[in-house]
Amino acid sequence: MRRSVLRPLARGSAALRFSARAALPFLGAGLMAGSAGCWAAGSLVLMDAPPQVASWSGGATAHSWPSAPGSRSRSDDLLPALEYLSPSGAFVSTDLGVGWNLVPLLASADAARTWQAGARLWPQFGRPSRFTPNGIDRLGPRVTTEAFANLQATPWLLLQSGLSWGSARHHDGQLLELGATSGVPLGDDLIAITLAATAANGAHLRSSYGVGPGESAASGLPEWHPRAGMMDWSVALSGEHKFSERWSVSGQWLNARLVGDAARSPLTTAKSQQSFSASLWYRF
């Protein structure tokens, strides 16, 4: 997500402004605009160090994602995109949510080139009524809180982590995602490659993939009571191309593979959860 985020999902305008010669060349987009990648992977934050001066960007993002957790159906949209980045580490972004990278305040601007750590608010959609089987309770949208920490381990390896809470039907869900990002040079640009894995507590898995006794009786589906554990592993490819100092285009493809109780749920019709985004950006 992402990353920046993944939403990821993960465009990650903050994450993808790099060149093959830059000190942080591989920071790819980890999150997509909206919350397209939040059901399976895509919650990692990938971002560059805060800018020296405040930065505003705007544009449009097209993305496609699974319509519900474990769903084979897909949803597509085209939405405006906006991002504000502050030298202090604060950000407001359709890619990253609303949050603060605290390293510039707690350490220094130089330290922010190696570490990113802070918190953010991020929306997470659930299972809309039109994609909910008859007899299964609808899962509405939530706003989650995520604490993130990234380490630039080597010039070509970024280690990422994100711990979020506030998901699930009663806002008691928790997710832990760990990942690593590197990059492959392509001329003056890079293709970022992210590998990640996500674990969830029982509350999150039961809300997204569980079938209670009442739901089983009403829907005809067997009861399913997921336990805490691994939810998915994922791979993402991200990239950006700059046409000029102000105009750029970026995109990400993410494939999350459900595992464990999430994969075996009677609500899951597709174990492979793929998301895609493409964005056109203008930096003011």
From TrEMBL:
<keyword id="KW-0472">Membrane</keyword>
<keyword id="KW-0732">Signal</keyword>
<dbReference type="Pfam" id="PF06629">
    <property type="entry name" value="MipA"/>
</dbReference>
<dbReference type="InterPro" id="IPR010583">
    <property type="entry name" value="MipA"/>
</dbReference>
<comment type="similarity">
    <text>Belongs to the MipA/OmpV family.</text>
</comment>
<protein>
    <recommendedName>
        <fullName>MipA/OmpV family protein</fullName>
    </recommendedName>
</protein>
<keyword id="KW-0998">Cell outer membrane</keyword>
<dbReference type="GO" id="GO:0009279">
    <property type="term" value="C:cell outer membrane"/>
</dbReference>
